[in-house]
Amino acid sequence: MKKQLISIVIVCFGLTGCEKFLDKTDPTATTFEEFFVDEDDLRRVVYSTYLDVFTNRDDRKLLFYMKDARSDNAYARNEDDHHQRIANGTMNSNTRAFEFYWTIHMKHIGRLNTYIANIDVPYVEDEAVRQRYKAILEGLRIWHYFEAVMRWGNIPFVLEPASVEEAKAEPMPKEQVLDNLFAMAAEVTTRLPEGEYTTNKYMFNRNSFKALIMRYALFNERYELAAQLAREIMDSGQYELYANYGDLFQYEGDTRNREFIIHMERESVGNGATYSFRDLGPHFRTGNGQSYAVPLKSLVDAYWTLQGRPIDECPLYTKEDYELNPGLNRDPRYAASIMGPGDIFYGEPIDVYNPGNPMYYENQRASKSGFWFRKFVSDADAFRDGTLTFGLIRYAEVLLTYAEAKLMLNDFDELAKDCINQVRRRAGLDMTIADVTLPRFSGYSHDQWVDLLRNERRIEFAGEGLRYDDILRWHIAEDVLNKPALGHTRLINGQLVSLKIEDRSFAPHNYLWPFHQTVLRVEPDLVQNPGY
């Protein structure tokens, strides 16, 4: 009986949506058939399906920039955001995070199955509108399934509306699920319009959906597909790198670029505020910065020099020089992405060691690492909610995906090297030394190119939510997450001392997440992943 009750609760939850979704054409409607009747209803379904998860700006747990705190890039100070326990390894099959994420993906897959099965019901004047919305809904279902299969491995794969009992399908092997998803994605792509929309810009078009599938192809080592899709997006001529890397994440360039491929902008969040300053920014006087996710020393040290060299291989300065002065002779993406002691914020120098300063590192709303993300944090938002536009996928990812995929295919061509150079040149590196077509790179081994590309990807996308998936797919999480989370480094009594936030651990079985015990009770055909 208890199991039955839990199932009923989950199914009821699965039929609910956000408040916007419940704004029905007929306010007296009480059933699915009564409110899913016309084009406005269809539009609201698509909008709410994006807003609930894909472009949700209200729930920090779902925001892309918070996800770096699952990795060696950042630290999340609030345990309720779930990222902290994933990063430090204090998780098990009763950890609330795994019920939350499983439920939210399965809930929306269930909703999408119902909408897609009934897509012919609403009245529309233009049949092309229906087909566009259908393709977009199918694309969102594919996205939910990609996220679920990457987290848990073998999962049920259901594409039709199902009763509670029918939904308890046996898990399908991960590779079979992926085969289905990539095949479905190829077909959906052909039914999406080629260009961006004048309104609803955030919704999938042909190239933006290709970019999403390209990402998951790379994540799942489908390198030929990843390279193919990246090349098709490049050849489309629809996108280009924005000239100024730093402005791309500030109001100066957020709406004035052709680099963003999937957008999270005002329309996608119901013309509401965005909260990146609140989530990432420093507490300043009476400002609203909460420092919920902050960079770590590991990320700071990952920024190579202006000449494109690791900080421990630079002939100009010592590694200690760089650790004590992170802005010294550094890749310009550092100053555009991170700020810390001695940097200027809102016209004043940052001081994390003064107990009388609101940015003192031991204060609750301050950064325990002594660093903050500059990306998505505008001085203009210090005392207000923001309206920044975010790029959930941008053209730089296409370029670096092509380069990595071709390297892994042992077909590292001149275009792949040019892709790296485009990204480095835009960043502002000294290309008389950093140009990867120069003779000094001609003797690079495969492993050296791998190291270069991985680091290029890490610093180009710092704070953009990609690092956790990268360390999992590269199978380096056991190395980088079995170290303490450290912050700013200073010299004390002649010794380098770094702020220590927490110890971390990562076990081999943590590459997959556990099914929560509640989920296993409700879905008895699921098999717990090893190690939990």
From TrEMBL:
- Domain named RagB/SusD is located at 262-532
Q: Which SUPFAM superfamilies match?
A: TPR-like
**Alphabetized UniProt keyword annotations:** Cell outer membrane, Membrane, Signal
Q: Which domain of life is it from?
A: Bacteria
One GO CC annotation = cell outer membrane
Record's subcellular location: Cell outer membrane
Write out the similarity annotation. Answer: Belongs to the SusD family.
> What is the name of this protein?
Starch-binding associating with outer membrane
- Identify the species of origin: Parapedobacter luteus
